[in-house]
């Protein structure tokens, strides 16, 4: 989490860390764009290199979803941290914890309100690129699940410069739940929607109901992308 003393990479990306990201991204590019086929729609909505305060909000159908977003929108040698939440259990192993932190992941507790993580995400949304699944867990059917009000709270207080809805299709065929190694020669479609504007909520007191209204609008925008895809 932001400012977490256990995170050795909390100060931001530097040359050698970006070099590490370069090799990691190259691996996922080979896996997802060469051994599988990725179609990118809405490229004009992808932020430019160096833009800060960007929030990607995607439908969650596979463990590889954040990597597909990284492969299709994350620039090499980014001067800005790209952050994403991961379940707290993954950070219990010291090696895996170090690896996850090096990629901008931070721990959150699943199935319960994690106030510390929410407060950290509010700060991250101001100056970083933050990648979040508003549903909070993978959809077992591919249908959209209700968005979590905590994400609406991050938007309300973090006020990111860009809030981009993202629709992922086909990732569950590449890596279904319970499978360790991805399949090859599958088709993935990722659609980046236009940035959403929630400035009308700037002077509205935050409540759980307001946060829910905000995240409901996010989920509706992803649903619109889904309907437009046919």
Describe the structure.
There is one protein chain. The protein contains seven helices and seven strands, in the order αββαβαβαβαβαβα. It is an alpha/beta fold. It has a seven-stranded mixed β-sheet, sandwiched between helices. The N and C termini lie far apart (38 Å). The mean pLDDT is 92. The protein has helices at residues 15-34, 65-73, 94-102, 115-127, 149-158, 171-174, 208-228; strands spanning 37-41, 54-58, 82-87, 105-108, 129-132, 162-169, 187-192. α4 (115-127) crosses α5 (149-158) and α5 crosses α7 (208-228). The protein has a single domain, classed as Glycerol-3-phosphate (1)-acyltransferase (3-Layer(aba) Sandwich), CATH 3.40.1130.
Concise structural overview:
With 230 residues, the chain is α/β, with parallel strands linked by helices.
**Rg from alpha-carbon coordinates:** 17 Å
Low-confidence stretches: none
Q: What's the story with the biggest beta sheet?
A: 7 strands, mixed
Helical residues, percent: 25-40%
Corresponding CATH architecture: 3-Layer(aba) Sandwich
Number of domains: 1
- The CATH class is Alpha Beta
- Report the portion of residues in β strands: 15-25%
Shape: globular
The CATH superfamily is Glycerol-3-phosphate (1)-acyltransferase
CATH topology: Glycerol-3-phosphate (1)-acyltransferase
Output the number of helix runs. Answer: 7
Report the average pLDDT across residues. Answer: 92
SS-based class: alpha/beta
Following the backbone from N to C, one meets helices and strands in this order, namely HEEHEHEHEHEHEH
How far do the termini sit from each other? Answer: 38 Å
Strand order of the largest sheet: 1-7-6-2-5-3-4
């Amino acid at each position: 989490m932001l400012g977490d003393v256990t995170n050795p990479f909390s100060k931001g990306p530097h040359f050698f860390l970006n070099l590490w990201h370069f090799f990691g991204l190259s691996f996922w590019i080979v896996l997802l764009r060469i051994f599988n086929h990725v179609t990118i729609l809405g490229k004009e909505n992808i932020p430019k290199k160096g833009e800060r305060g960007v929030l990607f909000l995607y439908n969650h159908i596979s463990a590889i979803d954040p990597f597909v977003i990284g492969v299709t929108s994350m620039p090499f040698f980014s001067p800005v941290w790209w952050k994403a939440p991961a379940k707290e259990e993954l950070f219990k192993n010291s090696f895996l914890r170090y690896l996850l932190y090096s990629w901008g992941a931070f721990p959150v507790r699943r199935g319960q309100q994690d106030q510390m993580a929410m407060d950290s995400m509010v700060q991250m949304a101001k100056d970083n690129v933050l990648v979040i699944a508003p549903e909070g867990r993978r959809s077992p059917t591919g249908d959209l699940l209700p968005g979590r009000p905590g994400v609406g709270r991050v938007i309300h207080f973090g006020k990111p410069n860009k809030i981009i809805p993202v629709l992922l299709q086909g990732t569950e065929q590449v890596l279904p739940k319970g499978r360790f190694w991805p399949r090859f020669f599958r088709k993935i479609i990722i659609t980046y929607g236009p940035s959403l504007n929630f400035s009308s909520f700037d002077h509205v007191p935050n409540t759980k109901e307001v946060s829910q209204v905000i995240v409901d609008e996010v989920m509706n925008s992803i649903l619109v992308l889904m309907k437009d895809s046919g």
